[in-house]
Amino acid sequence: MKKSILNFISYKIVPFFIYIFMRMIWVTIKKDFPYSHLTIKDKQYVCACWHCELLISPQYYHKLFPKHKAGAIASNHKDGKIVSSTIKYFNIYPIEGSTSKGGVKALINSLGALKKGEDVLITPDGPRGPRFTVNDGIVALAQKSNLKIFMINFQAHNYWQLKSWDKFIIPKPFSKVTIYSQIIDIKNLDNEEAKNIIRDTMLKHTTI
Fold first, then answer.
1. What is the CATH number of the domain that holds 159?
2. Are 126 and 112 in contact (CB under 8 A)?
3. Which residues, in sequence order, are CB contacts of 186 under 8 Å at separation 6+?
């Protein structure tokens, strides 16, 4: 009984309040979209953002692609389940597994989603880092599906930064946030070259 109550609080109540907080930040910040013209809304993508950008990036994705069906790779540990429950509010369903644990399962499920025409969202450095590293999973997904990578990154001009491994970024209400979308193709690159290009491209417009 006690465990059921704790699970209800952790995976129902907490995600709801996280969602409300995310929306409050989104509504109050002053948003600038310098690369919005790059967006091709009728295309399918493998989508990427850094783990520290999860407060803003899912909301921007949902704004750009409100009619797309999308799944996000999420780990099975407690924090991952809370994230999974939160992103459902943005019509993004969780894909079980992670790059560090259950990676094969996550890859298979993600490729299945891509074959059905859905987008897949991934944090290349998730779920445990190191920060700003790129795992093999995003390269495999993009190349096996023959899809381009749609990157969402942002630079916050005034923000709080948590002391977590990813140094999670929380833009302060009414501050300016510049949100970037970039599209790259890694089809003909080897694994290490692709990972380096993904990392370098995403870091161009990220709050360090």
1. 3.40.1130.10
2. no
3. 139, 142, 143, 149, 194, 197, 198
